[in-house]
Amino acid sequence: MNLTLKVWRQKGAADPGHFETFQPKGIVEDMSFLEMLDVVNEELIEAGKEPIAFDHDCREGICGTCSLVINGKPHGGQKATTACQLHMRKFGKWDTITIEPWRAKAFPVVKDLVVDRSAFDRIIQKGGFVSVGTGGAPDANCLPISKEVSDEAMDAAQCIGCGACVAACKNASAMLFVSAKVSHMNLLPQGKPEADRRVKNMVRQMDEEGFGACTVTGSCEAVCPKEISLNFITKMNRDYGCAILKG
Amino acid sequence: MKLDANIPSGPLAQKWEKHKFDLKLVNPANKRKFKVIVVGSGLAGSSAAATLAELGYNVKCFCYQDSPRRAHSIAAQGGINAAKNYQNDGDSVHRLFYDTIKGGDFRAREANVHRLAEVSGSIIDQCVAQGVPFAREYGGLLDNRSFGGAQVSRTFYARGQTGQQLLLGAYSALSRQIGLGKVEMYPRTEMLDVVMVKGHAKGIITRNMQTGKIERHAGDAVIMATGGYGNVFYLSTNAVGCNVTATFRAHKRGAAFANPCYTQIHPTCIPVSGDHQSKLTLMSESLRNDGRVWVPKNKADCGKAAHQISESDRDYYLERKYPSFGNLAPRDIASRAAKEVCDEGRGVGPGGLGVYLDFADAIQRLGEDMIRERYGNLFDMYERITGESAYKQPMRIFPAVHYTMGGLWVDYNLMSSMPGLFVLGEANFSDHGANRLGASALMQGLADGYFVIPYTIAHYFASEEKNCPSTDHPAFDEAEANVRGIVETLLKANGKRTVRSFHREVGKLVWENCGMARSKKSLSEALKRIPELRAEFWENVNVPGSGDDMNQALEYAGRVADYMEFAELLCTDALKREESCGGHFRVEHQFTDKDPEVKNGYTNEGEAKRNDDKFAYVAAWEYTGPNKKWKLHKEPLKYEEVKMSTRSYK
Description:
The complex is a heterodimer of chains A (about 250) and B (about 650). Chain A has about 250 residues and is an alpha+beta fold. Chain A contains eight helices and seven strands; from the N terminus they run ββαβββββααααααα.
């Protein structure tokens, strides 16, 4: 393939950053997108230059580490696919591909394509749990949960916390992520006792982190590699409203 | 070095109960005076950090990922075993214990495995209480499925992502403690050395991967839950960042490394498509229920498309060699058979490293819709990666490394041979012997973190004189200087070759000589070549950039430097163990048609042949210095309850 890459380079949070153009050799269609970047980096290192920094780990679409905006779309736009599972055969032989980091105030750039998503962790720390210590749990089958409820909680729990929803949103809203996390817990009977506190505290933290407001355009749902449904945002808004009314 | 496994006395089934009573306690008011360092935030690390913080200890937890939720435990698909007997199908603690011991080819420590089976039920209770959405039946109770190596249904699962859901459970517990200020979390931080004070592990040296800052952390004890070493093979199903650095550097400071040669190779992975390949992806083994494995009979046909090869020119080698098991031959057998046909030059696909897994017969028999219903998601994943439709042409598969049973040696309390250093999860060696059963890795990680370490670490604290050194202690100076030395040497090497090219080369060397089949000849060859490659690495590696900011090439270089040494230990152990057991297969030691076990039909030709008289021991290796030979210590495996027997799959 004869690709032209326009890659975002940024030394650190203080650097304004710029695009750099590459025309890598030896790219073949069987490569994954990240393997293509590996090849570019090998070339750069051999030329004595600094490789492009990007986040990645499991490379099988489950850890949520990879975070590339490819041609304007988080993860590259293939349905239900993370960037690490995207393959070069989805591109044309002579394509020009732009590669950028997640762009959001709450996700500052660390270097090149690497961003800091610790805001998500801080939101979870405010209530994304059931307050149960190790050891005191009753027998697992003491608490029957209907399959429908359990399946719906699982739909929400599938979120891999990659942040593509934030990157896709024009307001950089984190509503899809937060609603998935809140809904997973609030749907289940184990999560009910803390449901009101949870939704209030997590939403407050989300706002403090500087994520934008949700205008329900649905761009988040469109790019979510785990196809988390917009319905969870509706559900969280309802939970939040009820919690506020209760005081 | 003296190895004492500290196995409690008394009948096997009562050892843990008795031991829990005998262990000393730390009173609740005193717990807050102890600092615990936890390295790694996968199932074992997160669960340990959260549980110890709940008890009142002050915990610092470190991970190299950008968030503790991303550790590679997340990738486990199948499930987690527990002896709940919810299905009323004859399961029990003893049966889970026995299946695990037998699955491990009688090379695990009996007492540890029994404890694992005992606490397995509590893990499920704990996870459900945390909100882990396990699969349920319409009645609202938990569903189970069956898994390899067991005749009962004891596996709990959450769609195809049990690992993620369990990790999110442990991460939520950890996050709660971080929010409460009881755990200080250090993401994007890698551990580069252990600090020893008066013979005890009392701290670590880390590098902040975002700023490059090298930092000192002191504690009363250090817990390592840093996973396995599968990436020494370069290609594996591990995450790209998984590494042996933490355990290996602890090993260099005095912690014995046990049974490194026990590595598990999974038969059904998507094959390598070229030199650019960076990792391998597992396809569920369940595919072999309906797929038929074959390669062309003649080398000349290998370049042809599958449909151009007539039925009579195909070799369904598993059905031919193992008529009773056919395509469902055990993992190790299926893996080695695939290697053999590829070695003969009859492999298919790029590089000739693949065999067909053909669904044509099953589609004809059951219809495409039925196959889609059973395996649709797997076929989709296969198509995403290879661009081929397995409905239209056979899948190509090849074996790949995906778990390592060996690890740092630990006693019954999970303490390594270095006092004060505890090792949990895949990073230790203790529970899976020479081969791990499916759905047992998640069980072990959580057992260690939730239910073992909270008891045993208290005993250590209560038994030793309290000593959490200041980070100004000379031992910290020495360890930090060591780390800085490594970083600077790597940056100054200024050679011609990239780190990746070295990793690829050492990985290929280990895979070819110490992979699915090992021999005295291949291992000796690897042991000759590895030190040469290591010397070249230090002279000719090219690491651009500086140590003062995020430098992924530098992180990678440090890890590969450790693989360069670890590879030699792996091959040394494999050479010494002159028997075949579980994941360790020495071609010199296999059943042949002359053996009575084969003649009487108990086992098949080509099966692993153990030697219990000579090798029923744990091989714990002591590091003796750079470029020096390791010293072997043996912990004999004494079985009180179980009789060692030949594993039979008939």
